[in-house]
Amino acid sequence: RDGPLRTEWTWCAGGAGDAARPMLRARAFLLVTCLVGLMSCGDELTVYSPADLGERLLAPGGMGPGWTESQRDVFETRAPENPSIDPSLWCPDYPTGKSDQLVSLAGDAGADVELQLGDPTAAEQPTYGLRQQAWSNRDAVDYLRELTDAVRICSGATWEGTGEDVGAEYRLTPLEAPTVGDEAVAVLVAITLSPEDGEPTMVMRQRMAAVRAGSIVMVLQEGDLLDIDEEPSTSDAEFDALIEQAARPFVELDGGTG
Asked: Which residues contact 40 (CB under 8 A, 6 or more apart)?
């Protein structure tokens, strides 16, 4: 497995053995139908409701001690508090039109939840949190393809923030793809924060994974605000375990075992 994308292929036609020519023609027609219709062995992608997805989001009770929830939403139309992946995560070399296409492919309906390790109402605010979102539509395959292309274009890129982000430096690094679902991609975006005319003082680490299971796209994003010399709050292995925990219910909903 090379690069950030892992994809599983399924043969639609199978072996013909010593079947007669009519059977060969029938199987060849089935294979063409599979490819043209973007099907898997003759079955169209099943699209699931936002309610189905919302029932399978992470919850504090299954996360261990100290986790709290600040938002949970199931929606038919995205509101400002229900964005898909923030286009600002992509480097300047990633065309604006393709960024807009990613937003369009995510569709309007879905479910999301925001969780923090700590109490968001306390005087000392939590510095580590997760945002999980899921949607289901017939553009899921295209979405993962375009997302993987964004990671390829921005791999290793560094760029300066603009507007409200002046003084921030972004760096995008592809991560090994998760081994769950039909296909997946993962990245780390590190945002170094500096006061005006000063040395860097803090870094926001944002690991993100997108997993496709049939028509479902599940995205898990972390926010980890650290002092410049502070170790990450979770290791790569711990974040991989969170991805597995977050994605597994959607894989099982779609009838998969990967």
From this structure: 10, 12, 34
